[in-house]
Amino acid sequence: MEHAPQTPTQNQQPLENIILVGFMGTGKSSLGRELHQNLGYQLIDTDHVIEKQTGKSIPDIFSQDGEATFRNLETEQLKQLIAKKTSKHIISTGGGIVCTPENRTILRQLGFVVWLKCSEEDIFERTSQNKNRPLLQCDDPMQAIKTLLEERSPYYEETAHLEINTTGLSLDEVSCGILESARYYFGSA
Which domains does the chain have, with CATH numbers? Predict the structure, then answer.
């Protein structure tokens, strides 16, 4: 864990969700399932919701409609969660959701945002065989990972209340750390 959770300001009453952000392959989906089991909160995976709503896979949305369309779908989904005052959920997001400035604001309004990190090598190892990663379907996926991480890291940092490097940690260890930090965050709200 790299920095302590920040508490919300007095005027801000956050919704009680735990939101997982981070680059593809850092464990958001797996950790989302673990937190769901440990906490009992319903799990929302933003990529799965978009696939269900559109009837298309993420790679198909990217290839047929473009990345901008996908990013707009992410923003609309976050707006719906705010409008419904969604609370007591685990929200696992797509790796690029923080690229849209509006999304960074909405994510923080939704609750406690956790940035999951790991090494570039771990990301490459975890994603290299997965064909559902449209931004890595290129001649040099390792360079794509490095470039995208460099672009996105400031956005993750701006959005997150807590950073956790998942390299070498079990799901249980990461889950326990998040739950303790979230209890502190929501307890001081």
Answer: 18-187 (3.40.50.300)
